[in-house]
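Tutorial handout. Part one gives the primary structure; part two gives the three-dimensional structure as tokens.
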Amino acid sequence: MGVYVTTSKRPSAKTKVLCEALSLVLPGSVNEQRGKKSIEQIFRRAKLLGKRRAVLVYEKNGIPSSICMMNVKAHSWDWVGEFLISNFHIYKFPKELPNEIAVSGERKEEFERLFDFEEPEDDDLIELNCGKRKLSFSYGSKPLLRLELVS
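Part two.
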């Protein structure tokens, strides 16, 4: 099912790069720049694309600082969570990534709920490790993306 990934209004280059990376490591996701879209228009666009979640990456002083999660319902939406990020690192991505993800770590249940992940059916998958202060995405023991969280 994936998520709809978008930016804050007037995003910096760093925010655009992070959004693109998130859309690649979150299977089935779509990344679009927000432009002048309102929150209501983001909800409608995510719904049109068949997404149950929208991820909005906000920034301070040109640096990504928070990720807000929107629950997309049939006729409405609500916020389901937010996490603050202090830093991120994007590694080299392979040409193709699997379209399933497995979640582990001490904050597993929290992030499964936030992203509304489905149970993987295959062994070829992206791994998301949810630690107390970081999220690490990897594939085949190679790191893809690391987000450092503010507790």
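Part three, for discussion. The CA atoms of residues 15 and 64 lie 5 Å apart. The helical segments are 13-25, 39-48, 108-115.
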